Amino acid sequence: MGTTQLGSVAEPKYWHLKTVLTEALDTDFSVGEILPNERDLAARFGVARATLRQALEQLELEGRLQRRRGVGTTVAPPRVGVAVPTARPDWTGAVGEDWQPVDCTATAVPAAVAKLLDLDIEAVEAGTPVHTVRRIRLSHGQPVAAELLYVPGSSVPDLSAIDAPAGPVRARSVLRELERVGLEGQDRAVELGSASADDAKELDRLPGAPVLVVTTRYFARGGTAAVSVATYRADTCRLTFGDSGAVEISHEQERRAS
Prior knowledge:
- By secondary structure, this protein is an alpha+beta fold.
- The protein has helices at about 15-25, 40-45, 50-60, 90-95, 110-115, 120-125, 165-180, 195-205; strands at about 65-70, 70-75, 80-85, 100-105, 130-140, 140-150, 185-195, 210-220, 225-235, 235-240.
- It has 2 domains: about 15-75, Orthogonal Bundle (Arc Repressor Mutant, subunit A); about 80-240, Chorismate lyase-like (Chorismate lyase, 3-Layer(aba) Sandwich).
- Strands 4-5-6-9-8-7 form a 6-stranded antiparallel beta sheet.
- It is elongated, with a radius of gyration of 22 Å.
């Protein structure tokens, strides 16, 4: 790893150091290799350890480094390319492949989600239950996303009351019924967010860690059949979309559905 003195740099020292470290990671280190300790790195670059820690923390947030207890700071593998299909979803296939059902409950939804589902105010205040399916998406055996899929009872009217009231079995039943719905289209929004306590636990991240939030509305029968709020790890995921098309940029500050 090369050396440089940062005293005359106009931009914040830690940010310039991050750039220097990034170049070194690309040329001098291999995936999984352990970096020298903080004292040696700080001395090599002529910076305070506090400055070095800021740079390392930024690189960790960007997914370039991984801090492992008892091991040290290692070079992270490349981001995982995660496909986000834009065609009609195959709910049954999703259950058997990447997405794994974790739970399903029938509870009142947040107001922001109720708005996306076109539920009126009276229904929200009355606590109209919606099937809330929680799923985890795996890639190479590792969790990369957590999803809350909100399905109004009207979208799955033939759901059997005999099925389990909660849990993965109930989730599969809801998804099977949703598969029978003739979806007419969807819209999607992607934004940067922070991991909630539940998502952080399932994604092996700390609460508040940066995540990519993909909110999707599925349309059928002239209305909204379901709403998905999927939280992807921002440090390891690179989202790719199946079909090319226009990208809408919204300048409105809208509250994220959660």
